[in-house]
Each structure stands twice: as C-alpha cells, then as structure tokens.
Amino acid sequence: MELSGAKILMTGGAGFIGSHFVADLLDAGASVTVYDNFSTGLTENLEGLAVDIVEGDILDYDSLRRAVAGHDAISHQAAQLEITRSIGDPIYDLTTNTIGTLNVLKAAKETGIAKRASSGFLLVSSASLPRASSLRQKLMTILNLHAADLRTVLR
Ligand SMILES: NC(=O)c1ccc[n+]([C@@H]2O[C@H](COP(=O)([O-])OP(=O)(O)OC[C@H]3O[C@@H](n4cnc5c(N)ncnc54)[C@H](O)[C@@H]3O)[C@@H](O)[C@H]2O)c1
C-alpha cells in the first residue's frame, strides 16, 4: 500500500506503540486519525503530531464505524494490557481484546476498507518484530516473516 497520501485510522494511537506508528506514518506522508478512549493513552504522546483525534471506544461499534468511514486503512493498536486490571476484571480484558478487535474487523468490512485495501488484511503480532528503524523497514520485515497464511483478505 502506498502510504503517501493515504488516510489511516489508528486505534490506540495515543498509546506507546500506536503513537510511534502515528509518527512514522506522518513521516511517510499519510494523514492519520487517532481513535482512542484514553484509558491508558496520553495526549502528551501525540504532542507536536498533526493528527485528528476521535475520543471513542472500540467497544462502541457505532462510534467506531463512523470514525472508520472515509479512511483507506486501519492500524489496530488499541488493547487492554494492564496485568492488574486483567486480574481484577478479566471480562473487561477479554471483551476489549476480542470483541473490540472483532468490531474493528467488522467496521473494515462494512465500510469497504477491507475490499479497497490492495494488500488485503495483514494480521501481525508486533511482538515478533525484530529491531527495525523505520515503518517501511518494519512493514517489509513483517511481509517477509509472515507469509500469505497470515494474510486474510476480507472480500
Ligand atoms: N509495549 C510493548 O512493548 C509491546 C510489544 C509487543 C506488542 N505490543 C502490542 O501493541 C499493542 C499496543 O500496546 P501498547 O504498549 O502501545 O499499549 P498502551 O496501553 O500504551 O496503548 C493502548 C492504547 O489503546 C487505548 N485503548 C485501550 N482500550 C481501548 C478501547 N476499548 N477503545 C479505544 N482505545 C482503547 C489506550 O488508551 C491506549 O492509548 C498491544 O496489542 C500490545 O500487545 C506492545
């Protein structure tokens, strides 16, 4: 996918990983909308970055779908990672990380993003990423590491 001029919606864009991806995408010439409920994300992480911010929850499907419309791609980085919260409220943890992700996939399908994206949908765990200095390098590494079996085209 050509990043220059692309409109990307980043869930969890105010978080640690998301905000670094946002910066890389802006450097590559994309425009970015951050969709985040700010449960752990910080506005400080986005300081100085020219992004649109939509405060919303991936569990609120209608809000998510509205935000997704008009974008070329979604980068899904919103997640519940806090161990103490996951122990204290495992249902919330499970719901955010499973139903929330399902909502993102559903919104991609219903808004036509899944069909339009020329590369389809790439499922990747960032935990497996070796050190790479730029977004392009990371993406190329992902594509090399994860063959077509991790690529699901939602058509
Ligand atoms: N931090 C790491 O070292 C690391 C390593 C490998 C993979 N990852 C993965 O990267 C992803 C992001 O992790 P992170 O470290 O940036 O965490 P983080 O907590 O800093 O960021 C998560 C973001 O998601 C937002 N969020 C949480 N629940 C939400 C919801 N229901 N709706 C909308 N926004 C919501 C939070 O406000 C936050 O901005 C996770 O999937 C994580 O497993 C992180």
Secondary structure: elements and pairs:
Blueprint: E1 7-11, H1 16-27, E2 31-36, E3 52-55, H2 61-68, E4 73-76, H3 83-88, H4 90-110, H5 113-116, E5 121-122, H6 135-145, E6 151-152
Parallel strand pairs: 1-2, 1-4, 2-3
Antiparallel strand pairs: 5-6
Helix pairs in contact: 2-4
Bound molecules: nicotinamide-adenine-dinucleotide.
Mean pLDDT rating? 83
Q: Walk across the major sheet and give the strand order.
A: 3-2-1-4
> Which bin fits the share of residues in helices?
40-55%
- What is the CA-CA span between the terminal residues? 17 Å
Count of distinct strands: 6
Top-tier CATH class: Alpha Beta
Q: Which series of helices and strands comes N to C?
A: EHEEHEHHHEHE
CATH homology superfamily name = NAD(P)-binding Rossmann-like Domain
Overall body shape: globular
Q: Can you tell me the CATH topology?
A: Rossmann fold
Radius of gyration: 15 Å
Biggest sheet features? 4 strands, parallel
Named at the architecture level, the CATH assignment is: 3-Layer(aba) Sandwich
What portion of residues belong to β-strands? Answer: 5-15%
Segments where pLDDT lies below 50 for 5+ residues? 145-155
How many structural domains in the coordinates?
Answer: 1
Bound molecules: nicotinamide-adenine-dinucleotide
Number of helices: 6
Structural class: alpha/beta
